[in-house]
Specification:
This protein is an alpha/beta fold. Helices cover 23% and strands 35% of the residues. It is built from 4 helices and 8 strands; from the N terminus they run E-H-E-E-E-H-E-H-E-E-E-H. It has a 4-stranded mixed beta sheet. The N and C termini lie far apart (37 Å).
């Protein structure tokens, strides 16, 4: 029986550059590594919680992973966007949604969608 969710694997032809992007540009913490700093790097925010793991597909003779959509949360989207723009990251226009989020989108080096969202109101308030 399934007892938990461990990680999402991303196999990339540009693993080192992709790892650098998540670590240096998005500033996602590295939880651990299985191989080295350019292969088998797990990103996350909490020990023993699901992670995003980037692998070098050339090392494993694997096909690159198809496009994914990763959703990250921030406490202040405007400040986060300002920081990313200073690093030269191209962002979509930020959008406020009726369901209570304020979101911006961008793509990583492999073309994966990254959504960064701020919760701007409690979802339970929207239903009432």
């Amino acid at each position: 029986m399934i007892t938990g969710f461990y990680c999402t694997n991303v196999f990339s032809e540009h693993a080192k550059e992709l790892i650098d992007f998540y670590r240096e540009v998005l500033e996602i913490p590295v939880i651990k590594t299985d191989a080295d700093d350019s292969n088998g790097v797990y990103f996350g925010f909490i020990e023993n919680a699901p992670t995003l793991c980037i692998w070098d597909c050339k090392v494993f003779d694997a096909q690159p992973t198809g496009y994914q959509s990763f959703v990250f949360q921030t406490d202040n989207l405007e400040l986060t966007m300002e920081s990313l723009k200073k690093k030269g990251v191209a962002l979509s226009e930020a959008v406020r949604y009726d369901w209570g989020t304020y979101e911006v989108r961008l793509n990583d080096l492999d073309g994966n969608e990254i959504v960064i969202m701020e919760i701007v109101q409690d979802f339970n308030d929207i239903k009432n």
